[in-house]
Structure formats: structure tokens, C-alpha cells
Amino acid sequence: MIEMKNVYKKYRNGVTAANGIDVKIKQGEFVYIVGPSGAGKSTFIKMMYREEKPTSGTITLNGIDMGSMKNNKVPHIRRNIGVVFQDFKLLPKLNVYENVAFALEVIEEPQKNIKQKVMDTLDLVGLKHKVRMFPDELSGGEQQRVSIARSIVNQPKLVIADEPTGNLDPDTSWEIMNIFDEINTRGTTVLMATHNKEIVNTIKHRVIAIEGGRIVRDEQRGDYGYEI
Amino acid sequence: MMSKEVITDMKSRTLSRHFRESFKSLGRNGWMTFASASAVTMTLILVGVFFAIMMNLNQVATNIEEDVEIRVHIDVAATEENQEELRGKIDNIAQVESIDYSDKEDELTNLIDSLGDEGEAFKLFEQDNPLNDVFVVKTTNPNDTMGVAKQIEKMDYAAKVKYGQGSVEKLFSGISLSRNIGIVLIVGLLFTAMFLISNTIKITIVSRRKEIEIMRLVGATNSFIRWPFFLEGLWLGILGSIIPVGVVSVAYYYSYEFLEPKLQGHFIQLIEFTPFIYQVGALLIFMGALIGVWGSMMSVRKFLKI
């Protein structure tokens, strides 16, 4: 599904965040991206949804070259990718339902489909009973669920999560992980950058470790491998 | 800018969403909306007044150009044959369009008429007319007037040749100078207004940054994101053009009413109130919309990087 070949990324300030990355990720995989801060995890992830372009090398998503892709094609690629962040990025003036529906409205999904899709998705993340509440009335875990719901409401083939449990307490983090597992079980590829050792070591999946812009370790059912 | 496909494909629901968004942010940025619409207003009032004056000056200039004529005073000593000979020679000049003959009695009558009451005094001369017979020569192109006049001057029996030397040229150069000054002034103001509009839009973009970030993340197209800003700029421009249209219409109406009677009888004719004022109004609204959209597009390109 995703293939990176000899990818380099050098920022204008001279920082090299990707230093020859080669990797293949198959449809339906669950992959943890681990590594110290500043190792290039975020750049790795951002190149996946083309927030950043590689300086050299190729990144293909289902056969489409993301590097040479024209800017006006990017929105259509993004519709197949859900992105979740540590800080949720919810719109404070919209309630739970509206925050999720927003993702469909701005891609001009027919109105008649929106309600059903939003409610189904909120059911999946366990927030069906809180649709009228606003983000500041929700706990951190609930806000992250809304954010996950928004990322998957359009049924993307790939979900990318950048430290989704970074702001959450351990119990809540497990709940969030269960949701990602559920999404993965339904056939969606999940790519997750994380610092959470306990989770990586308990819910076993493929682990890719990045250091200095290189993949230093790539194991099926791997361990976190760093001391915190 | 916006592709045709996007416009035709746009669903009415989407369009109404864009309209709603653009109006919301006009209200949200109250003071900036006011400031940038005012800048447009000031600019367009000046554009409107200047345009009305320029168009009228142009009209006057055209009238004068049409009236430019060469008056060839014929030597008193010339016999009828001599006069015919002179007419023939003038007629041979390629640029000459027409030659009218006005004898000295006609000339005196015209003079007396043109002076009104004071002209009575000249009636004394009816006994012993000191004026010359005159050929009134018109050229096809007013610009050839001087050259033709010079040629006629050299001919026999042409005692004096007059074509309003000096004053015509001064009038034309005066008009073109004021036109240039006005254009510089207006271009400067247009840029100021555009700059203010683009700043207002920038504030909207910043205040909606998170929303835009999410839109891009979930795959909203660039034109979808751009539409509300495009509309907001358009409203600012149109909003700013309402007062100028009113001011210029009223001002032109009263100026016309005031000046027209005074100019009666002179060869100066002002442009009539309608349909001229509709054209000026349309021009102002169009220019307002143009700077609004332009200012907004500048901001969008710079701050959205799309």
C-alpha cells in the first residue's frame, strides 16, 4: 500500500529529517513508529499524507507517486487518509456531531448520507450519547474519540496517528488503543507514532524505529526497545 | 483562479454555506470591515468625481476639436477673380475638408450678434465696413489645422490667417496633464484600498486557521477553501462602492443643473445626467468588486499557500 524508496528530506534550515528511508507497508497492517524526539518520526508521518514532500526519493500510496503529485490532486488523496493528532484539533464552536460532520461537509458529501455516517462512526467510538456536547464539556479521552471519529468517518484506507495518547492518562489511553485496534480489524491500515512503551509492548504489532532520519529497526510483533 | 468545473459543479447547498461564512466573518471583523470598506469608498468617490470631470473635459475637447477652423481674411484689394483663384488653391490642399465663404457684411452681422447689447455700437460700421471677406476652412483632421494654415499664409491675397493659435494647444495639453495627475492619484488610492482589503482577509484567515487546517487535512479542495474569502473580498468591494455611487450621482445631478444654464450659448455641452450616471455607477461597482476580489486573492495566495 505504501512504499518509500530511498527517501531523503532536508529542511531549509539544514536539518536532515529523513536520511535514506526504504520501507513497505501492506494494506491492513498496524505499524508503530517509535524513536527518540527529533529522530524524524513526525517528518516520516507528514510525508505519508503529503504535508511534507521528500527532497529526493519516491513515496507511493497505492501506486500514486506522492512526491510528483500536483498540489490540486492532494485533497483527493487526503480523502483516503485519516489523520489523528495528540492535541485533537477539534473546532470549539461546533458540537460533537458537527465536528465529525464537518469532515464530510467540506468534501461536499451529499447531505442525506452525512447523518447516517456520522452516527455510525460515533457509535463505533462510543460517543453516540454525547452528540450535542461541545469539546470543552468532554474529557481528553472523549475529545480524542471525536477526533478519531472525524478521521474515519469517510472510511479511509489508511489512518495516521501522531502520538494519539500523548495527552491522555493510562486508562484512557487503553480505551483509545482499543478503538484503533477495532479500526484495524475492519481492514484499515493504521500507522501510529508513539512514545508509549507499555502499549507497544502489550498490544503487539509491527514496530519501526527511527533514529537520525534512518530506520534502525523494523520488526513484526516488536518491542518498544527504549527506556523512558 | 477558480476553475469553471468547480463553479458549475457547485451544489447550491455548498454555495449557501460559502455565502453564510463570508457574511459571518464580515460581522466578526467589524472594524476591519469598516476600515477597508471606507478605503474603497474614499477611493471610489475620487475615481467617480474624477471620471465625471474627465469625461466632460473630453467631451468639451471633442467639441472644440470639431469647431477648430481656419479663418482666411482676404485682401481688400482682391478682385472676384483673385478670390476664386485663392479658393481654388486652398481647395487643392489634400487635408482640406470644406471651404465656406462669408463676405464682410456677414462678418459684421456675426460680430454684432456675438457681442449682444454692446454690439449696437458697431452698427455704425455698416456704412463703411472695415472688415474683410473671409474663407472659413475646415480640415478633415483637426491636427492638420496648423500645417494647412501655414500653407495658406503663403498664398497671394491671404491677408491674415487665424486658427486660434496657442489657445487650442494649451487647452489640449492642460486636459492631458490633469488626466495624468488624476491617474497617478487614483492608482495610488486603488493600491491602498486593495492593501487594506487584503489585510482584512488576512485577519479572517488567521482567525479561521484551525478550521482551514482541518479542511485541508480531511481533503477539502482548494477552491472550496478559497470561496468564502473570495466572496468576503467581493462584499467589501461592493459595500465600499455603495456610498460613492450615491455621492457621485447626487453631485453630478446638482452640478449639471447648476452649470448647464450658465453654459448655454457657449459651445460647451455637458454630458447629460442619464445614461451617463448609470455608466459611472456600473464602473464604480465594478471597480469596487475588482479591488475587493484582487485584495482577497492576494491574501489567500500568500497565507494559505494554495
Structure description:
- The complex is a heterodimer of chains A (228) and B (306).
- Chain A is an alpha/beta fold and 228 residues long.
- Chain A has one domain: P-loop containing nucleotide triphosphate hydrolases (Rossmann fold, 3-Layer(aba) Sandwich), CATH 3.40.50.300.
- Chain A is built from 7 helices and 10 strands.
- Chain A has helices at 41-48, 74-78, 96-105, 111-124, 140-152, 170-185, 197-202; strands at 2-10, 16-25, 30-34, 56-61, 64-65, 81-85, 158-162, 189-193, 206-211, 214-219.
- In chain A, the strands form 2 sheets. In chain A, strands 6-7-8-3-9-10 form a 6-stranded mixed beta sheet, with helices on both faces.
- In chain A, a hairpin with a 2-residue loop joins strand 9 and strand 10.
- The longest helix of chain A has 16 residues, at 170-185.
- The relative contact order of chain A is 0.20.
- Chain B has 306 residues and is α+β, with helices and mostly antiparallel strands.
- Chain B folds into 2 domains: 4-64 and 169-304, no CATH class; 69-163, 2-Layer Sandwich (Alpha-Beta Plaits), CATH 3.30.70.
- Chain B has 10 helices and 4 strands.
- Chain B has helices spanning 4-9, 12-28, 30-67, 80-91, 104-115, 145-153, 167-207, 209-218, 222-263, 273-304, and strands at 70-74, 96-102, 134-139, 158-162.
- Chain B has a 4-stranded antiparallel beta sheet with strand order 2-3-1-4.
- In chain B, helix 2 packs across helix 9 (222-263) and helix 3 (30-67) packs across helix 10 (273-304).
- Chain A: This is Cell division ATP-binding protein FtsE.
- Chain A: Part of the ABC transporter FtsEX involved in cellular division.
